[in-house]
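Researcher: Good morning. I'm working through a list of sequences from a screen, and I'd like to move beyond sequence-only analysis. For each chain I'm collecting a predicted structure so we can compare shapes side by side. This is the next one on the list. No need for commentary yet; just the structure.
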Amino acid sequence: MNYELIYFIGIGGIGMSNLARYFLSQGKRVGGYDRTRTQLTEMLEKEGAFVHYDDDTNAIPTEFLDKEKTLVVYTPAVPDSHGEMGYFRKNGFALMKRAQVLGEITKFSDAICVAGTHGKTTVSSMTAHLLKQSHIDCSAFLGGILKNYDNNLLLSDKSAITVVEADEYDRSFHWLHPWIAVITSADPDHLDIYGTPEAYRESFEKFTSLIRPDGYLIIKKDIDVRPQCSESVRIFTYSETEGDFHAENIRIGNGTIVFDFVSPGQRIPDIEVGVPVKINIENAVAAIAAASLCGVNADELRCAMKSFAGARRRFDFHLKTKNAVFIDDYAHHPDELSASIDSIKMLYPDKRILGVFQPHLYSRTRDFSDDFAASLSKLDNVILLDIYPAREDPIPGVTSGLIFEKMTSKNKVMLKKSELLDYLQGKNNIEVLVTFGAGDIEFLLPDIQKILKGKQS
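Model: Good morning. Structure tokens for this chain:
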């Protein structure tokens, strides 16, 4: 990819932005469009990228309109009606999907590719941190901002290992070339793309066929995926308490989680989880498994896991006082919601939990309304917001009401996002508040935190 200029359509996306940062680190001129100004796009501008927020080719600096020098990178979430996309196509520019570019960058590295309906951001972030804090080191393209580094891109000039979050949307992970593949889950999702749960599962099986002959597959025990890798690939299973890699002697208390890591070749006692929520026991097992296959030793694993601070918006504490707790979580699939809620209830068994959920995508709401309702009904109180459409146009008859009417919780309310802050301001005795969703609810987090802090005074 010998292009001097790289232009991104959707530069503010979490996966697009780490590619933008990579090309900036390579001395390329980087620019792009995004629909919304965010903290991430502002950081890219400070790092040297040109970013604009109107779908208007007249706003693009002329240097990026030289098709001989410019590569255009896009996300499949960009609609066909996008004006800039149409211009670049019509005028014969080189266009590549984000995943295609990532595949080219990592083609000649030892790629650790973490896939799954849920868990992939945490496991890939953990794996990268374990390697980065060891004598092995790594580069990493992550799907979240890792708080230890305040970045979603890690670079190394001494390690051939690259950790990649392998996104299944639009079969993007089929562009990758795994040395080690990790599959955390394969619960049906993105049925607007795949059509059926069977097609979704088959895409993960295709992913396993891409593993190098000298590679490894680490797969969650008992998930419905039949590996299609070559016979020379070594396959391991994992889970919290069973499989080739698992945890034993789990101790939860006093705000900590400690366990012994068990693998076919060793036992590492007293692993303390840096983000002590129950779901992270299983995530940690997968990450330690991958890092140990790379040669990270027991002392390094133990030290790095304890220091892991997590990724932003993944079980992210914004307030933690004696009287009130505020957690934000990216969960936007029913199984993610259920696992997150179970972890919170285990942490705070004697407190009432108020959850605010912003559904993500009309199609996902339509396809999984029963499951969303069942998950949310585990909460003591629920605030359900309007659907965040992201890339989709409205689907007739599909609203948050599909979920709301099926929820069994007696303490439930449906609000517009614009009404949320006033509602919380007037609500007393909030013990544990959790915001869930992959949409734009994150922009309300500072105001929510301010409201809860005000109630403490």
